[in-house]
Each structure stands twice: as structure tokens, then as C-alpha cells.
UniProtKB/TrEMBL annotation:
Gene3D superfamilies: Glycoside hydrolase/deacetylase. This is PTS cellobiose transporter. Coiled coil: none annotated. Its cofactor is Mg(2+). The keyword Hydrolase applies. Keywords: Carbohydrate metabolism, Hydrolase, Magnesium, Metal-binding. Pfam families: YdjC. InterPro entries: Glyco_hydro/deAcase_b/a-brl (IPR011330), YdjC-like (IPR006879). GO terms for biological process: carbohydrate metabolic process. GO terms for molecular function: deacetylase activity; hydrolase activity; metal ion binding.
Length: 284
């Protein structure tokens, strides 16, 4: 088994809805995921958290920092004036203009870390960001300081880096402009993580258009190839049969992802690529 190359496969958005949670729990139980990123501001996270916590011996469980889409856990008057949650485009604009309110952002990160600990009984194994908000200037600095405080108290953890060489992104040929922009924003994330006493993945994949074509299987087959000793692929599965969330624009794509990750084709593709799904700090 351990002659295969390890890949961390992380499902984002746990806690967003019952459909997402059901898919993630099923895939973890079947060994199809090795990391789960939790939206602790989501209405379903506390309810599903106890069940996910029972699977902690099978998967890393981390914080999916949310500063878009969901209401924050505390006041963010500069970031969300009038209580209006920003779009990712608005947040990017503020970050690139140097207008992230550092103190209130750091306080919200602290609140979400504390909520995670309240739900799961311990700090997260890792931290990343919804819509990659954690790599944005200002937000990243606040996050690194919070992480350094945790590692300084002896907690081992890792951070998601979205950095990847442009040649690798272009060779893969999936959402090249979007992936390249995210990678550009992530430059130096691994070094920042190490300075904070944490670790980081050294290859990142998983950005798609959420469209029916190319198929998710075709995308995943390409995500299984590439360099890196600790490569990370993100995914966004959800199960059908639950009340629909009209605000979840990517639900059809979530259903397609779950169908493939739960199929016989997925382990066959892993075998063909010489890949095993493994946790971040696994050896080999």
C-alpha cells in the first residue's frame, strides 16, 4: 500500500447543509477522503460535528474560515458595513487595496477557531479558507498570528497553500486563469506557515468551473498527476435527497462530485495513477 504516492483529498464546506454533511460522512467512512474542512459558522456544523468527530481516526478535520457567504460569529463593521456579507470579489478588492480591517478580522478568526474547539473538543488539524479567503493580504497575516499562537502551545497543524507553478497549471489545462490567480495570491504561504510553526502542502489542485463538462472524473484524473511530496486536492461533494438550498449555486456540481467519488471508477483511477488517499502527516 505504502509504495503508492500519498495524496490528501479534502472535502470543503462541511456544515453548510445536510446534503454536504451526509456526503462527506459517507465518503470518510469509505476511505475516499482524508481531510474535511468545516464551516463552523454554518447552521449544520454543530449538529454534524459530533458524528464527524467520531471519525477523527480516519481523517484530518479542519477549519474552513468563512468571510463570505455566511454571517460572521461576531461584529465586522468595517468588513461588512450594515451587516452585509461581502462577495469574494468585494473582499479581494479590499485586500488588494490594503483595506482589510486587521484587528476585527483577527478577532473573527479567533472566534471561528474557538467555535471549532467548542464543537470538536480540540483545535483544528488544519485551516483553509472558503473561496480561498485565507490567502488574501491582511487576512493571511491575521491567520498566521492566530496559528502561531496555537502551535506555540504545542498544537501540530497544517495550512492550505494554493500555490503551484504556472507550468503545472497550464499543463493540466483546467481553469487556468482562475487557478493561476489563486496561486499568485498564495505565493509564500508555505514559508508563512513554517514561520508560524505549522506545515503546508507543496502542491495544490482541485479548481474547476463546476460545469458539467469536462466531467468531474476527467478533471480528477488530471488532479491525480503532478509533483509534490504532500499534494492536496480539494473537492465539494453533496448528497441528494435533502432540502435544497436555493443559495447554493454549485449544488448540481456537488452531486456530480459525490457520484464520482463514491463510484467504483474512483478507486480504479487511483490505482491506475499509483495514488493512495492519505492524511497530511502520514508517512510515505
Amino acid at each position: 500500500m505504502f509504495d503508492k504516492k500519498r495524496l490528501v483529498l479534502c472535502a470543503d464546506d462541511f456544515g453548510l447543509s445536510r446534503g454536504v454533511d451526509a456526503a462527506v460522512l459517507d465518503l470518510v467512512e469509505r476511505g475516499r477522503l482524508s481531510a474535511v474542512s468545516c464551516m463552523v459558522a454554518g447552521s449544520d456544523c454543530a449538529a454534524g460535528g459530533a458524528e464527524l468527530a467520531r471519525l477523527a481516526d480516519r481523517t484530518d478535520i479542519g477549519l474552513h474560515l468563512t468571510l463570505t457567504d455566511l454571517a460572521p460569529l461576531g461584529p465586522l463593521p468595517a468588513t461588512m458595513p450594515g451587516g452585509v456579507v461581502p462577495t469574494i470579489g468585494t473582499l479581494i478588492g479590499k485586500a488588494l487595496a490594503g483595506r482589510i480591517a486587521y484587528a476585527e478580522t483577527k478577532a473573527e478568526i479567533g472566534r471561528q477557531l474557538a467555535r471549532f474547539t467548542e464543537i470538536f473538543g480540540r483545535p483544528p488539524d488544519f485551516v483553509d479558507g472558503h473561496q480561498h479567503c485565507h490567502v488574501l493580504p491582511g487576512i493571511r497575516r491575521a491567520l498566521i498570528e492566530e496559528v502561531a499562537a496555537l502551535t506555540g502551545r504545542g498544537h501540530r497543524m497544517w495550512l492550505r497553500s494554493c500555490a503551484e507553478p504556472f507550468k503545472a497549471i497550464r499543463r493540466r489545462g483546467i481553469e487556468v486563469p482562475k487557478t493561476s490567480f489563486i496561486a499568485f495570491l498564495s505565493r509564500g504561504m508555505g514559508d508563512d506557515a513554517r514561520r508560524a510553526g505549522a506545515a503546508a502542502n507543496d502542491s495544490f489542485r482541485g479548481v474547476t468551473s463546476f460545469a458539467p463538462e469536462p466531467s468531474f472524473r476527467a478533471c480528477m484524473q488530471r488532479f491525480l498527476t503532478g509533483a509534490g511530496s504532500v499534494p492536496l486536492v480539494m473537492c465539494h461533494p453533496a448528497a441528494g435527497g435533502y432540502p435544497a438550498d436555493p443559495t447554493d449555486a454549485i449544488m448540481p456540481a456537488r452531486l456530480r462530485e459525490y457520484a464520482h467519488l463514491g463510484s467504483d471508477a474512483f478507486p480504479a483511477d487511483l490505482d491506475a495513477a499509483g495514488i493512495r488517499i492519505g492524511r497530511f502527516f502520514d508517512k510515505g
